[in-house]
Each structure stands twice: as C-alpha cells, then as structure tokens.
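Thread: Newbie trying to understand structure tokens

Hi all, I'm a second-year student working on a class project, and my supervisor (Dr. K.) asked me to get a predicted structure for one chain before our next meeting. I've only ever worked with sequences, so writing a 3D structure as a token string is new to me. If someone could post the tokens and maybe explain what I'm looking at, I'd be very grateful. Here's the chain:
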Amino acid sequence: MEVEIREFSKQDIKEMIFIWNQVVEDGVAFPQMDCLDAESGLEFFASQSFTGVAVDKDSNSIVGLYILHPNNIGRCGHICNASYAVLADMRGHHLGEQLVKHCLAKGKELGYKILQFNAVVSSNYSALKLYEKLGFVKLGLIPGGFLMKNGEYQDIIPHYHLL
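---
Reply by user tm_fold:
Sure, no problem. This is what the structure looks like when written as tokens:
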C-alpha cells in the first residue's frame, strides 16, 4: 500500500476521530480516557502544532494520523511531543514508521530541537522496536506509570530523539 502523509483538513475529521478513538478505547497506549466527538475532535486536532494524516492512495481513505505539539513551554518549548494512531485493520503494515519519520522531519521544520515521548508503555512492543530502529534514546523506566484499561499499571519508558 502506498500512502501520502499530509496535513489534515476538516473533511478528514470523521475518519480521524474513528482511528483516534480506536486507540483510546483499546486503553493500552494513549493517556486519554475520553473519546473525541466531531466538535472536540476538530478542536483537538486543530490545536496541535501539526496534525498529519496518512492517506491510502488507492482508496483515498485515512489509515493513520499523528499529532505534534510542544512538550512544555518557555525554556523547554524547543522540545516537542507526538502521538500516533493507525487504523486497527492496517496495523502491522509499517504505517507507524512512515508517520514517525514524517513527524521527525516536520518537528525539525517547525523549529523543534528534540522529540520526546513521555509515556511509551512497556508492553507496546511494536512501538518500542520501531523507536529503537529509528534511533530514539530510552530515558529510563517509570514503574507503574500507565493505567491500563483493565485497571493494572504498566511501566512506561520515556524516549527522545534529537532533531
């Protein structure tokens, strides 16, 4: 499958919300507990430094997305943060890698110096493998830093990548 990654538009919101909410409802990767609706979704995605969508060139459907935003403010405002979501049926097709690579370039283009992930869940093996492959540095381990949907706590592993 060939995808194009581009900035989102209002016409994409319905598909984007569906994909985002799949990850939220899975309860094993995103810190958010509440799903987005049409109003909150548009506001959320529009408030980011950049929101990118991966569009399948054959079907013209959205198969993944990412958000990029400051990780902090002021003297730490040069550090960005991102989240990635891939349509459940399309996971395992290396879309995440394409999204992360695009995000690294976009973060640099926007003037950020570092991309930091605050909460990579230790059981998210595919993300951990991808971030290692792309040269991210692990910052350590925060025991029990993530509340899973089933009520158990998982460790989180912060990461960073110099841009």
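A couple of things are worth pointing out once you decode it. Residues 95-109 form the longest helix (15 residues). The first strand starts at residue 3 and ends at 7. Feel free to ask follow-ups in this thread.
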